[in-house]
Amino acid sequence: MISAQQLKGTGVALVTPFNEHKQVDHTALTKLVNFVIEGGVNFLVALGTTAETATLNDKERLEVVKTIKKANDSRVPIIMGMGGNNTSQLTDTINKTDFDGIDAILSVTPFYNKPTQEGLYQHYKTIAEASPVPIILYNVPSRTGCNLDASTCLQLANDFDNIIAVKEASGDLLQVMDIIKYKPDDFAVLSGDDALTLPILGLGGDGVISVVANGYPKAFSQMVQAAHNDNYIKARRLHYGLTDIIKNLFIESNPAGIKAILEMREIIDNQLRLPLVPLTEQTYDTLKAQFKAFQAEFWNAF
């Protein structure tokens, strides 16, 4: 069973590649899994937001996870996204799920309902009591409409041994600091924002679940590792080498930006499912110029 210590490093929220017919491209997904593992990431996240999971049907989700497990071949831990805003239905899904080859679940705060902090606590309490694998809390209020306060996160971390980490994407560094300062030793704090990963690591965070690591696994993993080694000269160089790219990955919608980068790397086709669409020509051209600039600056290393 995975521990908080095993989350110390770089996780990648894998995209779901599609072909020109908008079908899941399992060959490209296998290629991507090998690319990021060979690039040095420490764990994989399947069926997250970046995977366009909301556009996949139940059969496709099972097939995506199967492909990722096969390609991974037990090399690194696999985290599976499993969240929802119907607690009872989510618990039922957990009870019916085969977790063979899955090391933990990443569970987003309930979206749209806008529960109170007590509601959030009771939601996660119910999940913790049902889940046979550890749980990573996922706080992303810009998408869900509710924030998991530091006090609620810490209460969950202290009350349930199988709640082992939080992916913090609130963008609120004061909140992140409170969690890091008061968390149990066996609880990991993971950045949910690529651009804030280095600051969060500097504050004592443990790692990241990254989007940009799909396209830059080696550079981003080395940035995280350098920070863990207190080599902030190297970490800052890599951080600032990627910041312009990171900004443009999210300027329109995620994963449109990272899918454009992966197309430039000739790993996947630049295909998304509605309601998401590819980047506008202007943003694509800007990102391509930044892609070439990074390649030129870091060519020998990456």
Automatic annotation (TrEMBL):
One GO cellular component, as annotated: cytosol
MF GO annotations: 4-hydroxy-tetrahydrodipicolinate synthase activity
Transmembrane segments: none
Enzyme Commission (EC) number: 4.3.3.7
Top EC class of this enzyme: lyase
Active site: Y138 (proton donor/acceptor), K167 (schiff-base intermediate with substrate)
Tagged with keyword Zinc: no
Site (Part of a proton relay during catalysis): T49, Y112
Amino-acid biosynthesis in keyword set: yes
Pathway: Amino-acid biosynthesis; L-lysine biosynthesis via DAP pathway; (S)-tetrahydrodipicolinate from L-aspartate: step 3/4
Domain of life: Bacteria
Family statement: Belongs to the DapA family.
Subunit structure: Homotetramer; dimer of dimers.
HAMAP family referenced in this protein's UniProt entry, alphabetically: DapA
Protein name, UniProt field: 4-hydroxy-tetrahydrodipicolinate synthase
